Amino acid sequence: MPWPSEPRLAETVALGLLQGPAELLPISSTAHVELLPWLLGWRHARLDGARRKEVAVALHAGTAAALARRGALARPAFLAVATAPPSLAGLVLERAIERRLGGPRAIAAGLLVGSVALVIGDRAPAHRSAAAASVADALWLGAAQAAALAPGVSRSGATRSAGRARGFTRGAAAELSIEVALPVLAGATALKGLRLARRRPPRRTAGALAAGAAAAAASTAGALRLERAATVPPAAWAAYRSVLALAVLALARRPPRHGGFAPARSDRPLRENRWR
Which of 72, 75, 190, 230 is the most exposed place for a label (fewest CB within 10 A)? Predict the structure, then answer.
């Protein structure tokens, strides 16, 4: 089956609606945005890596817009320290990560590693509030965001784990995770958005990307109101992630059903159609 060249409007909007909660909860937005089209046989799963990345840029732009409206830049120095590690790691390792960690097995591994981190981090005593976060805490959160560049690890999951390990309560760790998200998402969107602008995508594609960004902004705004999710035991999220990872590993052994990318023996064929 030939690969399509441009994203479909309905699929991009659906992924935008998934983006908000998947980004803010410790479950990995990258894994869910890539896995759902693959499992359902959508056109998105057959787009080449560059086109799927354009969709990802649009979805992150929507999430960043919703976080900006929330007013999440109250501590610029704290945010600068938390943003430096993932920014540096992204500039140095972006291509290598996309080339070597883009397949379903790598995403499943990231889900499992992140699950372990969630459980271990939650064992620390919980006695600190988000307002008590220091520059040293910001550095730990930044390192966690850098580690989350690996697909499947989850930026939210990694920062919540780091926060809990530093003694913050579950709610405070979730609050800090949201606080440090905006600069990273905005920076990545700006960098990759420039690359998209140089391509000058067709009007239909631009419309689909704009609709996806709007859907992501709406779903992010809705997810920000889910305060109860902050107190869900990390072990519950870890269990969900582990089940998803095992399902991906099982399905990755089967031949692709929809012309997408589910290699039977290795991730090697994905290099032509890389996962993000």
Answer: 190
Mean pLDDT of the chain: 86
- Look at residue 216 in the predicted model and tell me its pLDDT: 97
Q: Any idea what the Cα angle at residue 4 is, between residues 64 and 42, rounded to 5°?
A: 65
Residues of the chain with pLDDT under 70: 1-4, 71-72, 227-228, 254-276
Domain ranges of the chain: 9-273
